[in-house]
């Protein structure tokens, strides 16, 4: 009976007193605007100031304002009767705190855009009366973005290359991250739908270049990037490889390789010979032209490779020259001749160095010999003068005998000394020295 009376007293106070927002610690003001993301849990704050020990919170109730007017109860917590929920919110709402009287924050689980609206937290106290605070909830939706690239073809006119779209609340901002020389255009629609387009004139050099879409939204710290590379299709450029100007008769395993540099890659290759059919014994394996036999002179000519993809075709031509003999033997002979010539040059240079060295050696020896001959000549001249002087001061018989004897003695001495000196050297030097000796002997005999 006492409890019922107390409950009625609370109802009377609730209907008679309403103080809005001034006694709440959370939220700090009323009405309070709150933003939340769809699919996330949303916390609606409500905490009454109970610093006054004489004030006691009796009941807390959350309600929501209807779009057509009026309110609907969501959940209620009584200090003694416990909690009650509206069946329409069962399993979707709960108090954050196990003691909702102390902290009455409400949790909306799995928030959806339909939860957007005005929420009211009402607190009944004793003996001071009723208090309430309002929270306006705005539910954002994360951007759902997509990018639609378009395959372009080289040579086509200025056209659309890609479209980026986004659905979000509030509406997302869209931009392009690229260095391509194109033009961007934005569009916006109802219900948070936005799109952006990028157009350009396609060239094959643009194929594979970056064309990313950036999605900007307040629910994100930075832009969300959708990566994309521009695709430009173009016809192939045929390139033939494998031939060098050394093909000759009887050469084995000769092969020509044709490659097509296009986008997409060529799927078909065709080989022909200009003015005539392909030779016998030649097979085509994709882009490869294989000579399955030794080469012949009749294999020469202009060969054409044609590559094809979904865009177009490319063509390459190569002229084959077949020589009658291999250049390998000629090359070996040439190398051998070069080696022999090099050895011959080295030998000649060596001989020249030896001859010059020997010539210098004998030249020095001849110079030394000439100096010694001059010294001997001076010595002989001195001896001759002495002999002449003796003849003048001696008797005639003695003079003749002495003169002859002395002349013979001087001549023998000179012959011995010069011979021993000259013959120490080579035959050519001895011959030269002998002429000096002979000239001197002639002078001595005739008394010159």
Structure explained in plain terms:
With 448 residues, the protein is of the alpha+beta class. The protein folds into 4 domains: 139 residues, Immunoglobulin-like (Sandwich), CATH 2.60.40; 81 residues, Immunoglobulins (Immunoglobulin-like, Sandwich); 87 residues, Immunoglobulins (Immunoglobulin-like, Sandwich), CATH 2.60.40; 113 residues. The protein is 29% helix and 37% strand. The chain has 4 helices and 26 strands. The strands form 6 sheets. Strands 1, 3, 6, 7, 8, 11, 12, 14, 16 and 17 form a 10-stranded mixed beta sheet that branches. Strands 13-20-21-24-23 form a 5-stranded mixed beta sheet, with no helix packed on it. A 3-stranded antiparallel beta sheet has the order 4-10-9, with no helix packed on it. β16 and β17 form a beta hairpin. α2 runs antiparallel to α3. The longest helix has 66 residues. The radius of gyration is 61 Å and the shape is elongated.
């Amino acid at each position: 009976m006492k409890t019922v009376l107390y409950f009625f007293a609370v109802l009377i106070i609730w209907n008679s007193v309403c103080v809005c927002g001034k006694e709440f610690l959370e939220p700090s003001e009323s009405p309070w605007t709150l933003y939340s993301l769809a699919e996330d849990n949303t916390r609606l704050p409500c905490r009454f100031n109970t610093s006054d020990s004489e004030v006691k919170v009796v009941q807390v109730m959350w309600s929501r304002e209807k779009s057509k007017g009026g309110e609907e109860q969501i959940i209620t917590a009584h200090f003694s009767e416990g909690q009650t929920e509206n069946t329409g919110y069962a399993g979707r709402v709960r108090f954050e705190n196990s003691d909702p009287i102390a902290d009455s924050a409400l949790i909306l689980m799995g928030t959806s855009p339909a939860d957007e609206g005005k929420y009211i937290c009402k607190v009944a106290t004793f003996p001071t009366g009723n208090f309430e605070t309002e929270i306006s909830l705005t539910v954002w939706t994360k951007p759902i973005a997509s990018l639609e690239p378009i395959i372009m073809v080289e040579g086509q006119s200025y056209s659309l290359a890609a479209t980026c779209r986004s659905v979000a609340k509030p509406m997302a901002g869209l931009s392009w991250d690229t260095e391509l020389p194109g033009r961007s255009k934005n569009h916006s629609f109802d219900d948070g739908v936005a799109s952006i387009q990028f157009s350009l004139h396609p060239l094959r050099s643009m194929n594979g270049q970056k064309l990313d879409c950036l999605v900007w939204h307040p629910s994100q710290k930075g832009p969300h990037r959708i990566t994309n590379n521009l695709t430009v299709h173009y016809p192939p450029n045929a390139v033939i490889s494998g031939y060098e100007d050394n093909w000759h008769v009887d050469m084995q395993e000769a092969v020509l390789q044709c490659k097509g540099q296009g986008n997409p890659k060529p799927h078909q290759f065709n080989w022909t010979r200009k003015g005539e059919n392909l030779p016998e014994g030649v097979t085509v394996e994709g882009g490869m032209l294989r000579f399955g036999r030794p080469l012949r002179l009749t294999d020469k000519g202009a060969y054409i490779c044609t590559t094809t993809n979904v865009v177009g075709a490319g063509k390459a031509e190569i002229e084959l020259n077949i020589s009658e003999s291999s250049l390998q033997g000629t090359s070996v002979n040439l190398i051998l001749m070069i080696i022999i010539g090099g050895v011959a040059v080295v030998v000649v240079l060596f001989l020249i160095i030896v001859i010059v060295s020997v010539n210098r050696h004998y030249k020095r020896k001849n110079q030394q010999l000439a100096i010694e001959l001059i010294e001997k000549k001076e010595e002989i001249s001195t001896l001759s003068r002495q002999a002449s002087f003796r003849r003048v001061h001696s008797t005639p018989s003695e003079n003749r005998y002495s003169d002859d004897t002395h002349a013979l003695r001087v001549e023998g001495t000179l012959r011995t000394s010069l011979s021993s000196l000259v013959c120490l050297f080579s035959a050519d030097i001895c011959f030269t020295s002998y002429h000096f000796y002979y000239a001197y002997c002639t002078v001595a005999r005739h008394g010159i």
